[in-house]
């Protein structure tokens, strides 16, 4: 690095190594981030992206190697903070029992003194307006009452607020994973403005089109190492996938042969009885689309409740549910990976009320291999897994059950490209065997894989699309239609 490059470096990591037992989370990573650039960081689940983020933000000292923050000689979180480095974490880190403005104060010590609440409310409202124009989040709202998308928006806005130290580098770890297409576009536009004004961003995402559109330079990680690093313009989507060690598979054709006549396995109307009715047949993959927060999750929960109303768990479950907000509704954080998986299939693994541990272990191993859960041991705690790998466990829990209907609430949050393709293949083959999937997704590509799609707006279904009518254009135009009574 020459003198002028060193001068603009916000942070430089040299030969960083981090290990957890036998797992090499970082295996000699060297990376410099300069002012005015947006680095796209990609890699499979467990590649080491969140670990390098923790090194860059000073939260984790590498076991070997060094980190230098531009403009300060210190180490750790305090030095990183003083160097203007901020991070929006994948698992989100707001306090749910505090309001939006109180969370702003927790993250910004400079927001203090008489009248801080009013000042803070003005600052955070202004930043939310700037990044997400048209949002409806109140600064006085308790964070626990917000949807996961709103929490993601608040955390992003708080991070970009300038109170005290200037913001020089923002690390965004999968910042659009819960945002619908419109909110994601608003965020990307803001990131472009921030970078044009001299800020630096590290943008981590499994949505490769997003990375290619926002990044100036792309860094590809694999098994704790940087395996490729060059200007974004020199990468294609295909090239990125190959660099990550995944294989691009041909997209499977939509199965129009699915019987849409006959008796539906599920029927419903939306909660307020308005809009079009919903029905699902055996072997269908049904997508829920529309802007986020327009009733899709509520409908999934209603469907789940009506099919599993009894508190006594039946031996033959009627439905399984894959939660999108894994930290709140999905994982048992003190349990092992195996227990988190097997809780969904306990009746199948028990005889006369006793768990057959050998069978439990064998089933866990077979799903570990089938869905690629990256761990040396299924007995390790669930939190030892990377975010995407935790999500795979939740998937395996639902898919391993015998439930004929699987409800999925934006279930691919944080799952890498290669695994997504594997899961799409599993869904297709399970559907061919008669299983029904109801799938809410904030990713348009996923919705377009479904046999039939219901588009939601204002809590009601406003359109039903099937076959070749399932297209981005039709979904977007229906998303802005009003619900008919
Ligand atoms: N506290 C921990 N204890 C044990 N292993 C850990 C711990 N934290 C991370 N690891 C391991 O380190 C490796 C790298 O994890 P990391 O979270 O950095 O991956 P990632 O690239 O961010 O993945 P994802 O895309 O799923 O978020 C993984 O194999 C993970 O299981």
UniProtKB/TrEMBL annotation:
This protein's name: ABC transporter ATP-binding protein
Source species of the chain: Rhizobium wuzhouense
Kinase listed as a keyword: no
Pfam family, one: ABC_tran
Domain ABC transporter: 11-248, 253-483
InterPro entries assigned to the protein according to its UniProt record, in alphabetical order: AAA+_ATPase, ABC_carbohydrate_import_ATPase, ABC_transporter-like_ATP-bd, ABC_transporter-like_CS, P-loop_NTPase
Family named by the database record: Belongs to the ABC transporter superfamily.
Gene Ontology molecular function, alphabetical: ATP binding
């Amino acid at each position: 690095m020459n003198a002028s490059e060193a001068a603009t470096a916000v942070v430089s990591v040299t030969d960083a190594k981090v290990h957890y037992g036998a797992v090499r989370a970082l295996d000699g990573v060297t990376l410099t981030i300069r002012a005015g650039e947006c680095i796209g960081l990609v890699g499979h689940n467990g590649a080491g992206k969140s670990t390098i983020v923790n090194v860059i933000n000073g939260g984790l000292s590498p076991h070997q190697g060094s980190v230098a923050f531009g403009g300060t000689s210190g180490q750790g979180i305090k030095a990183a903070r003083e160097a203007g480095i901020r991070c929006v974490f994948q698992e989100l880190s707001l306090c749910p029992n505090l309001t939006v403005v109180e969370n702003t104060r927790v993250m910004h010590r400079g927001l203090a003194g008489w009248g801080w609440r009013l000042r803070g409310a003005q600052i955070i409202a202004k930043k939310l307006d700037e990044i997400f124009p048209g949002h409806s989040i109140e600064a006085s709202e308790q964070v626990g009452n917000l949807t996961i998308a709103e929490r993601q928006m608040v955390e992003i806005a708080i991070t970009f607020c300038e109170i005290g130290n200037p913001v020089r580098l923002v690390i965004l770890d999968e910042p659009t994973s819960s945002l619908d297409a419109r909110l994601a576009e608003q965020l990307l536009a803001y990131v472009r403005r921030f970078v044009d004004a001299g800020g630096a961003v590290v943008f981590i995402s499994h949505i490769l089109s997003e990375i290619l559109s926002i990044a100036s330079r792309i860094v590809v990680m694999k098994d704790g190492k940087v395996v490729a690093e060059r200007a974004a313009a020199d990468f294609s989507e295909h090239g990125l996938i190959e660099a990550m060690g995944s294989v691009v598979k041909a997209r499977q054709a939509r199965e129009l042969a699915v019987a849409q006549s006959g008796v539906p396995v599920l029927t419903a109307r939306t909660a307020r009885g308005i809009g079009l009715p919903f029905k699902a047949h055996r072997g269908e993959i049904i997508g829920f689309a529309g802007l986020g927060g327009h009733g899709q999750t509520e409908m999934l929960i209603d469907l789940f409740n009506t099919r599993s109303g009894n508190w006594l768990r039946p031996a033959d479950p009627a439905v399984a549910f894959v939660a999108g907000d894994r930290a709140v509704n999905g994982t048992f954080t003190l349990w092992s990976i195996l227990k988190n998986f097997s809780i969904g299939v306990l009746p199948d693994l028990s005889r006369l009320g006793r768990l057959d541990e050998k069978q439990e272990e064998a089933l866990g191993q077979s799903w570990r291999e089938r869905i690629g859960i990256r761990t040396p041991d299924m007995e390790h705690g669930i939190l030892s897994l990377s975010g995407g790998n935790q999500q795979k466990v939740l998937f395996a829990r639902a898919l391993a059950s015998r439930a004929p209907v699987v409800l999925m609430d934006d279930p691919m949050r944080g799952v890498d490209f290669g695994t997504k393709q594997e899961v799409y293949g599993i869904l297709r083959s399970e559907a061919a065997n008669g299983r029904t999937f109801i799938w809410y997704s904030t990713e348009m590509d996923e919705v377009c894989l479904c046999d039939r799609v219901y588009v939601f707006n204002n809590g009601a279904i406003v359109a039903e699309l099937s076959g070749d009518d399932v297209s981005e254009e039709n979904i977007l135009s229906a998303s802005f239609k009003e619900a008919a009574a």
